[in-house]
Design a protein that fits this description.
This protein is of the alpha/beta class. Helices cover 43% and strands 16% of the residues. The chain contains eight helices and five strands. It has helices at residues 2-10, 63-71, 92-96, 106-115, 124-130, 135-146, 153-163, 167-182; strands at residues 13-20, 31-38, 57-60, 81-85, 118-122. A three-stranded parallel sheet has the order 3-4-5, sandwiched between helices.
Length: 185
Amino acid sequence: TNWLVAVAESCGWRAQSTSVPGVAQRTGATIYYIEMVPESIANPVLALMPSPGDVDLVIAAELMEAGRAIQRGLVSPDRTTLVASSHRSFAVSEKAALGDGAADPAPVLAAAHEMSKRFVCADMAVLAERHGSVISASLFGAVAAAGTLPFPREAFEATIRDGGVGVGPSLDAFAAGFEAVSQGE
């Protein structure tokens, strides 16, 4: 969230972020919501939470989170780019089942393709781990490559540098996420 706000502001946009905490099976399904508008728009009125059918970009750090965003109506075929990591963090019910309790990802993948204007998906967790970073860095690269936000790659990278923490590994994971999307992975 901080990186997205920072890249927007560095490119001359106003940005506001809020969060809607949730309690889920994995304790922590918080929705982070950001609205951005060019500074040229005088006195914008920004919302505090997303409205179904009115979201340009949804980022999901795990595949079933993408499914939950679709269920909430935050993803729409005429507007939304959905960027998701394809890896799974299993829910309690999946872990507690005898044998293989993992939910079938196929319906979520099908819904993501059907319900989004553009669906961008790769294993962002493995890309981050490969570079000694965190998933937000590879997702940030995927967002930059998706082209939904009107900011150049260099602005995204400068935002990581300006953060000053884990810069090298974060830039490497960013590049991996960017390349995965650019190559259609």
